[in-house]
Specification:
With about 350 residues, the chain is of the alpha/beta class. It folds into two domains: about 160 residues, Alpha-Beta Complex (Quinone Oxidoreductase, Chain A, domain 1), CATH 3.90.180.10; about 150 residues, Rossmann fold (3-Layer(aba) Sandwich). Helix content is about 25%, strand content about 25%. It contains ten helices and 15 strands. Strand 8, helix 3 and strand 9 form a beta-alpha-beta unit. Helix 2 packs across helix 3 and helix 2 packs across helix 8. It is globular, with a radius of gyration of 21 Å.
C-alpha cells in the first residue's frame, strides 16, 4: 500500500512582534502505521485563534508552549480515518487540540483529549470550531459565570466583531442587557448593530473613546467582557459602576508587544468601584461543556444567536491566514478548511 504523506507546519522560530510566515516550516512526513490503542484523525477544519500567538511564545502560560520543531498546535474538527482503539471507529466525527497538519495520530494515553461529535448533526461540522466549540464556550462561561449579567444592565464587549465577542454580546442581549460593542471599523459597527442586535457600537480607531463610551453607556458599565486590554480597558475603567464585573478573556492588544506593556493606568477604579476582575481559560470549564453546548444549541435553533465564519481554503494558507487575527481583516470566527467533509 502506498505510504500517505502528511502535510504539516512546524514552529521554527518564536515571533518577535508580529507573527511572520517564516516562523513556520512546511513539511511532508510519511504517516506511520497505527499501533494498538491509537486513532488516526483527518483534519477537516482548523481553528485559528489569538491564543496561537501565546503558544508560540516561550513565556509562562496556561499550557506548555509549542516547542521549536514541533507541529503547531491548533483546535481541529475532523474525522476518524482509522482506529485501533475500541472507543472510536472509522467515520466518527471528533474535535480536539491537535495540530496544523492533514492527519494526527492520537496515542492511547491521550485518547481522552478527543471529543466525539454528533453524527449526524443538526449543525454544520464547522460550527464545532465556532459557536459550539471553544470560542462559544469561552463566551458563554466568561459572560455568565464571571460577568453574571442581570436584566437591564449595561454590558460592553471589546473585540466585539471577533469569534468570542460576537457570541458574548448576543448572549448578553438574550439575558436582557444593553450591549455595546467596541470594534475597529464602521462596517463592523454596522454589522454588530444591524445584524447581531447590539444596541450600540464604537469604532475605537476613529472615535474619542472616553466620550463615545460615555454616550453609549449613559448608565455606566456593569459588565465589561475584556478581549483586548490596553487603552480600551483604561477607557472602560473610568465608566464602570459599583460592583462591576470584568471577565478577562484576552489581551490581544499586547500579544505582539516587544517590551513590557504598562498599565492599566486607571487601575485605581477597580478599588473605588469595588469591581471584580477575573481572568479565565476555557480549560477551567471542561467538566461543564455540555451546559454550554445545550444552551448555545437551543439559541441557534431558536434563531436568537447568529454566527459568522471566515473560512480560508487550504492548509497551505494557515500561516498567512493567522495574520488576519491581528490586522482586523475579518469578522467572526477564522477557520482553515483543510479537507472535505465525509459524504
Amino acid at each position: 500500500m502506498e505510504t500517505r504523506l502528511n502535510r504539516q507546519f512546524r514552529l521554527v522560530s518564536r515571533p518577535v512582534g508580529d507573527i511572520k510566515e517564516s516562523d513556520f516550516e512546511y513539511r511532508k512526513e510519511p504517516l506511520p502505521n497505527l499501533a494498538n490503542g491509537e486513532v488516526l484523525v483527518r483534519t477537516i477544519y482548523l481553528s485559528l485563534d489569538p491564543t496561537n500567538r501565546i503558544w508560540m511564545s516561550d513565556m509562562p502560560q496556561y499550557m506548555p508552549p509549542v516547542e521549536i520543531g514541533q507541529v503547531m498546535r491548533g483546535i481541529v474538527a475532523g474525522v476518524v480515518e482509522e482506529s485501533k482503539n475500541p472507543n472510536f471507529q472509522s467515520g466518527d466525527l471528533v474535535s480536539g487540540m491537535l495540530g496544523w497538519q492533514d492527519y494526527t495520530i492520537v496515542a492511547q494515553n491521550n485518547i481522552s483529549s478527543l471529543t466525539r461529535l454528533p453524527n449526524p448533526s443538526p449543525y454544520p461540522l464547522s460550527a464545532f470550531v465556532g459557536p459550539l466549540g471553544a470560542t462559544g464556550w469561552t463566551a458563554y462561561f466568561g459572560l455568565l459565570d464571571i460577568g453574571q449579567p442581570q436584566e437591564g444592565e449595561t454590558v460592553v464587549v471589546s473585540a466585539a466583531a471577533g469569534a468570542v465577542g460576537t457570541i458574548a454580546g448576543q448572549i448578553a442581549k438574550i439575558k436582557g442587557c444593553r450591549v455595546v460593542g467596541i470594534t475597529g471599523s464602521d462596517e463592523k459597527c454596522q454589522w454588530l448593530t444591524q445584524e447581531l442586535g447590539f444596541d450600540a457600537a464604537i469604532n475605537y480607531k476613529t472615535a474619542d473613546l472616553d466620550s463615545a463610551i460615555a454616550q453609549s453607556c449613559p448608565n455606566g458599565i456593569d459588565v465589561y467582557f475584556d478581549n483586548v486590554g490596553g487603552s480600551i480597558l483604561d477607557a472602560v475603567l473610568t465608566k464602570i459602576n459599583l460592583y462591576a464585573r470584568i471577565p478577562l478573556c484576552g489581551l490581544i492588544s499586547t500579544y505582539n508587544a516587544t517590551k513590557p506593556v504598562p498599565g492599566p493606568y486607571n487601575y485605581s477604579q477597580i478599588l473605588m468601584k469595588r469591581a471584580r476582575v477575573q481572568g479565565f481559560i476555557i480549560l477551567d470549564y471542561f467538566s461543564r461543556i455540555s451546559e454550554a453546548i445545550t444552551d448555545i444549541g437551543q439559541w441557534l435553533d431558536e434563531g436568537k444567536l447568529k454566527y459568522a465564519l471566515e473560512i480560508v481554503d487550504g492548509l497551505e494558507n494557515a500561516p498567512s491566514a493567522i495574520l488576519k487575527l491581528f490586522d482586523g481583516n475579518k469578522k467572526g470566527k477564522l477557520v482553515v478548511k483543510v479537507s472535505e467533509e465525509p459524504n
